[in-house]
Amino acid sequence: MVSSANLGFPRIGTNRELKKAVEGYWTGKNDLDALLLTAKNIRIANWELQLNAGIDHIPSNDFSMYDQMLDTAIMLGAIPQRFAKESFNSKEELYFAMARGLQTDFIDVKPLEMTKWFDTNYHYLVPEISKDTSFVLQADKILDEYNEAKAIGINTRPVIIGPMTFLMLSKFVENDTTLTTSLEQLVPIYIELLNLLAEEGCEWVQIDEPILVTDLNVDQKISFQRAYDLISKKTSIKKMLTTYFGSIHENLSLLKDLNIQGLHIDCVLGEKNLDIKLDELPKDIILSLGVINGRNIWINDLTNSISIINKFIDTIGVDRVIVSSSCSLLHSPIDLTIEDSLDEEIKDWMAFAKEKITEINLLSTYFNGRNVQDSIDENLKHISNRKTSAKVNNLSVQNRLNEVSPEMKKRNSNYSVRALKQSEILNLPLLPTTTIGSFPQTKEVRQMRAKAKKGLISHKEYDEFLLSSTRDVIEFQDSIGLDVLVHGEFERNDMVEYFGEKLEGFIFSKNGWVQSYGSRCVKPPIIFGDISREEAMTIDWIKKAQSFTDKHVKGMLTGPVTILQWSFVRDDQPLQVTCEQIALAIRDEVSDLADNDIKIIQIDEPALREGLPLRKMEQIDYLNWAVDCFKLSSSGVPDIVQIHTHMCYAEFNEIMDAIISLDADVISIEASRSSMELLAAFSANDYPNEIGPGVYDIHSPRTPSVNEMVKLINNLRTHLVADRLWINPDCGLKTRGWDEVKTSLTNMVLASLAVRKELEKS
Q1: Which is catalytic among the residues 249, 487, 552, 699?
Q2: What phi, psi does 239 have (nearest 5°)?
Q3: Largest interatomic CA distance in the chain
């Protein structure tokens, strides 16, 4: 028989119940018992949903209050000393302090760093490993959740992040702490855990090692084999080694002599997995085929999946095949059936998490002899309709793209010439201060937006509210002495969704939420067709904001690569083509802003690094077209217009040549959470343009003091030239509260002034 499996299910709840419960707990509106009950209800609902859908291998421990890497760090005892030495009131207080930081009368600790999970828009917390790390098993969570499912009659397959992926995604804070030495200490912990699960009656465990789809050096390969050789020998539980986000073909030989019973491969993003040499795998291994895309919202091409599965069945037999999602469905919205306003034709082309597990079951039952031809025929009809639909194809957009020339991707002059012209026009001081863009989206802002959407207030009333909010935020920025202002973005629900709503080729769900990090959920736009801009998107609000001040107000745009990466994208044409279409639309908006005398325009590209392919051999092509798309969007303006961009939570070392090639006049980056460590890449490469490394971590509720930020700014000066430095927060302030924002930004301005005065004296 062909079995069915799912690698993980969204944990936020159909109506974002977890987000609301966690944030209620943080603010004191809910107690811990209420939070734990909400979490339990979500887990049980997820298990029962998958059971009723016919999934044979149902995951547990895929649930998290905040992040699975944080869960793993705590499970393994990898708790940094700054947390271990404090006395927390509960394990939950410790957990959230590691996630968000904590500042009380008695405790002031900074959180773990945060970065992107491989090439997704999910952010994970980076474990810290040092010589003081004492790995010790704390298995309560994984055992409790396994037994919780068992109590309702479901013997789940617990999910564990494997030791190699855990360590390779961790931060080693001392030079004498290495992957090899840490792995030697960690492997016995994994052995202890697997044996405990076996004692509880667990038959299978899912060990996630997505690091196997990346480039591994010789030492890393040796470490992997040694670790799993020991784990295999000292545990009897069945192990499903799980890879995703790419192909394992180059690392397949590592598995041949290991005693693992199953291997999961991604058959969506790992095309080369379809041609792997099965004789390089352990004898009688079970193959889990990830044919259902866990990262996008389009229906599965059932006929194509049947062909792929048949290929493996013909080689290894029907009993050694499992049909599965390509990766965890964490990256998918939950329930398409509750979407009551989507275009029905386009909705027929979609599948959310609930529909995806139905597709998994349908494929497995097809191979087990059940007649599902009606479902296959219906699927074929929708696939064919999408290919030919006039809603997808726009000939004028395609023709315009064919007319793009190399000259359209270049500024008129190089940076040194532009900088002189901009300096004369802008007249900014040394170490100019600004913010990244958004200001707090308070409950009042969200309520007014909801009322406007429901027709409970008129468009005039809503616009008056937005105008008042914009005037207030301009006056606040003026009052504390910020040098370059922003309009606050109160009219924007999301930095991508806002633009998608104003572009052709996008469609939007009401409840298509996915987790970005912690309690932060995003609702990605859906790109279904060719993209164009029919009218200006931001001009009115920027002009209104500029009328309230004599200082420069930045025009705020989201870049083409980020709009692409943070949307559910078309899978029927190359990503480059879709990105170029978006770039032309943004180019039109940039030109309109410049024509309306906006002298500073920020085009955010926080997702540039995120889209980088996991294999080095594929990265050059991506970076070339990604950079070209940014330049296509930003280059159609005079030299006096200063182009900013923003990036956050990325390994900049890997893409410095590309960042320099963007030729943005100013780049702002995340730096405070990593204590300015990311600056090494910019310093080592003698970054030629202007840069604003964040001095205020906006993802933490901590309020940094003036002295703390002065130290960070002085640290900046040891890496970078002072007359090319900007002072700003790490990221937008949308998720923060007004009290902390006011204090933190005031402190930031005072810190910049203090350093500026010292520099002027010297």
Answers
A1: 699
A2: -115, 120
A3: 84
Q: Are 394 and 529 in contact (CB under 8 A)?
A: yes
Please name every residue paired with 600 in a beta bridge, in sequence order, or none if there are none. Answer: 642
With beta carbons less than 8 A apart as the criterion, state whether 125 and 113 touch. yes
Domains with residue ranges and CATH for the chain: 3-388 (3.20.20.210), 420-502+537-761 (3.20.20.210)
* Tokens 């590309």 sit on residue: 658
Phi–psi pair at 647, nearest 5 degrees:
-135, 150
Q: What is the pLDDT of residue 289?
A: 98
In contact, 128 and 98? CB cutoff 8 Å: no
Nearest to 10 by CA among 54, 82, 62: 62
Which backbone phi and psi does 515 adopt, to 5 degrees? -80, 135
pLDDT band of residue 544 (cuts 50, 70, 90) is: very high
The average pLDDT across 750-759 equals: 94
Residue matched to tokens 């037994």:
147
732, 666, 743: which is closest to 698 by C-alpha? 732
Nearest to 600 by CA among 482, 694, 500: 482
369 dihedral zone (left: phi>0; alpha: psi -120 to 50; beta) = left
Q: How far apart are the first and last CA of the chain?
A: 78
How is 631-668 classified by DSSP, letter by letter? HHHH-SS-TTSEEEEEE-S--GGGGHHHHHHH--SEEE
Using an 8 Å Cβ cutoff, are 233 and 260 in contact?
Answer: no
Neighbours of 424 (CB within 10 A): 9
Q: Is residue 542 scored above 80 in pLDDT?
A: yes
As a whole number of angstroms, the distance between CA 756 and CA 753 comes to 5
CA angle, 129 then 99 then 447, to 5°: 160
Catalytic: 699?
yes
Residue 651 has pLDDT above 70, yes or no: no
Type and span of the H or E element at 714: helix 706-719
Do residues 271 and 247 make contact, with C-beta atoms less than 8 angstroms apart? yes
Q: What is the mean pLDDT of the chain?
A: 94
Give pLDDT tens digits for 559-602.
999 999 999 999 999 999 999 999 999 999 999 999 999 999 99
Q: Give the Cα separation of 452 and 659 in Å (integer).
A: 40
Of 237, 43, 239, which Cα lies nearest the Cα of 145? 43
Tens-place pLDDT, residues 10-44: 999 999 999 999 999 999 999 999 999 999 999 99
pLDDT over 60 at 675, yes or no: no
Write out pLDDT tens, residues 157-197.
999 999 999 999 999 987 777 899 999 999 999 999 999 99
* Token pair in block for residue 221: 């390969």
Q: How, if at all, do strands 238-242 and 262-266 pair?
A: parallel
Q: Report yes or no: 643 and 601 within 8 Å, Cβ to Cβ.
A: yes
